[in-house]
Amino acid sequence: MDNTYHSYGLISGTAHPELSQQIAKHLDVPLIAAEIGKFSNGETSVVISESIRSKDIYLIQPICPPSPNDNLMELLILVDAVKRASASRVTTVIPCFGYSRQSKKHKSRTPITAKLVANLLETSGVDRVITIDLHSSQIQGFFDCPVDNLYVENLIVKYIKKRIPGEWVVVAPGVGGVKRAKGICDILDADFALLHKQTKLRVREDQFNHFHRSVSPLSNGSERTSPNLAVQKSPSLDQIAETYSNPKEDGVPPSSSSSSSSTPTYPSIPPTTTIAQTIFRPQPRIGLLSGLDVTDHTRLFSPVEYSRSPSPQLFLSDPKQMILVGSVRDKVAIIIDDIADTCETLELATKTLLEYGAREVHALVTHGMLSGNAKERIYSLDGLKQLVITDSIPQDIDKNGRIKVMSVAPLLAEAIRRTYHGENVEGLFTK
What we know:
Layout: E1 8-12, H1 17-27, E2 34-38, E3 44-48, E4 56-60, H2 68-84, E5 89-94, H3 113-124, E6 128-132, E7 147-150, H4 153-163, E8 168-172, H5 178-188, E9 191-198, E10 201-203, H6 205-215, H7 237-244, H8 275-278, E11 288-289, E12 292-293, E13 300-301, H9 303-308, E14 315-317, E15 321-325, E16 332-340, H10 344-355, E17 360-368, H11 374-379, E18 384-390, E19 403-406, H12 409-421, H13 426-429
Parallel strand pairs: 1-4, 4-5, 5-6, 6-7, 8-9, 8-16, 16-17, 17-18, 18-19
Antiparallel strand pairs: 2-3, 9-15, 10-13, 10-14, 11-12
Helix pairs in contact: 1-12, 2-3, 4-5
């Protein structure tokens, strides 16, 4: 079919040309030719090879690995080229919206990169955005133009009903995915369970030994310097709070001429260190940590306390643990998530569900980034029956392996068709 008879057209970037071709096939519209390459100095070159004057143009380009920065820059240049070619409206179709996990400030002095990407797209001249399963729905509010956030729950439900028999329990691998998993759970009329990941941070043992050698008093009032931590006694929280409440200088507590033999002395702390950063709750003996014997005096630190600490290098991370809320015993557990990146969370979730008595574990994830050794981790994870992802990101996967791929081309094609004809797209993105 000759493209000149259509008042809209599709242009593909270089990030995922296979998906663009499938979308064009579903719409029975050929892709508009565009020459996209690199100059000798590495800059991106774009030339639209035919007239697109007064047409609605849909640019198909995910911002995804292995080169999300190049893909983003290429998309911005494509938008500018299309606007300067007098297109009537420019819609970006971004199956995987890169930088969506950086949608808020997790700690001080960090960017909100999802907002920056939204600003870049709008400044380049985008009139509308179509995407799939944003990591945070709040990203839609970063744009002043319309954003259609499509969901793949219908594809997931059909796959489960057709390919995964048994008594289902839908599992959210984190608090942030509860809404996503609950929507599928309601459609399937299945049970729901939640996994919550806990991470604790402990003082490095060498720093802990130094601290206790400095602060543990003997019965005669002198300081103990023995490294034998098992017989040393930690100062109470009240003692520390009282001692540091009125430091004489540089965090050193004032000395009293009539000090009691039972009053211990404490080491100096940096002036920038607050009492909240110094006092942490004692915990019982937990066992071995990275080959080190953790004593009864081990103190645990929350991630917030760790991030506020002036010396994060003094701490070691505990192995992560997951807490299950709900029952999965003798049921087919189905993990629902939006992103599978390193697959460490997926690996931990699978092992946890099997420990709690799940009969089988399956995982269905929208965006399969599969960074690093994620594929090897999945193939070696015997407890996981299958990982099902979509082709929102280009995949190079053995079709007969444990990782399966569903196509989102029909979903995106229908969204483009409805958008062009001014039809309601609510059925495509309402959960």
